[in-house]
Amino acid sequence: SGVLFITSIILLSIFGLKLGIDFTGGTLIQLRFTGERPVLQEMQEIVDSLALGSVLVQPADEDSYILKLQFIGEDDHQSLLTSVRDAFQTEESEVFEDSVETIGPSISSDLRSRSIKAGIGVILAIILFVAYAFRKVSRPVSSWKFGVTAIIALLHDVIITMGVFALLGKYMGVEIGIPFVVAMLTILGYSVNDTIVVFDRVREKLIKKGSDRFAETVNAGVNETIPRSINTSVTTLLVLLGLCVFGGESVRFFSLALIIGIILGTYSSLFLASPLLVSWEQLRNRK
């Protein structure tokens, strides 16, 4: 966990995340083909050859492509249309431009700033809530430490997922936008929920059996929770794998982010959060 977490921070520091037009703004063009739609790779090669910067080509419906690119002028716009029509327009298949939009960034710097502040507020709220919910468990680990451990597991899941997308952005040109933000928020909620379920079983055992053998009690709680956590995750992952494979380009990386995050969330709830509690208790005993 430590190696993956540190590696992800390094990747985010070096490469960063490749921001899409939801963050940067740009031009959105939808092209419709009356005949057979060209292969995605061929379409991508045509637009890349025009040196218009990073262009994201996404299939839409059964006969269209959506092009997402940086702001372009009318000359570049017409050059793009001409190149696509020269490459793919025939007597049997025509190319129509259904729409062209110049859009500003959906996620402004002000919204990003507010989101960061809201995220910090949520983290503090989780710690306080868990501390209150676990107030009857004050030995051998303070109740607020359950909340802090849940946050550590949460950050582990989110940061590693972002590190994977930093690599995908660098080497595959995968851009992030509003769907990625939604995926991160979903992972955040899933991770906290799964961790709290494990902690709740540990709390029940601590109240019933006491805290004399803390490590054994935590281990028993985790073991009883493993089937529930794995079954819940597997059924969720089956749906997400279907979306990733058959859902089309527009939802592929959204579902991939969720797949990575849910696998990490299940792992961290069982094998990171609870062992951290035990390590915290052992550190207290050494003092």
Overview of this structure, please?
This protein is an alpha+beta fold and 287 residues long. The protein has 9 helices and 4 strands; from the N terminus they run ααβαββαβααααα. A 4-stranded antiparallel β-sheet has the order 2-3-1-4. Strand 2 and strand 3 form a beta hairpin. Helix 7 packs antiparallel against helix 8. The longest helix has 38 residues, at 249-286. The protein starts with a helix and ends with a helix.
How would you summarize the topology of this molecule?
Elements: H1 2-14, H2 21-24, E1 26-33, H3 40-48, E2 55-60, E3 64-69, H4 74-88, E4 95-103, H5 109-133, H6 143-172, H7 178-209, H8 214-246, H9 249-286
Helix pairs in contact: 1-6, 5-6, 6-7, 6-9, 7-8, 7-9, 8-9
Structural class: alpha+beta
- The overall pLDDT, averaged over residues, is 83
Shape: elongated
Radius of gyration: 24 Å
Query: What's the arrangement of strands in the largest beta sheet?
Result: 2-3-1-4
Q: What sequence of helices (H) and strands (E) makes up the elements?
A: HHEHEEHEHHHHH
Main pleated-sheet profile: 4 strands, antiparallel
Helix content: 55-70%
Number of strands: 4
N-to-C span: 26 Å
Low-confidence stretches: none
Per DSSP, the total helix count is 9
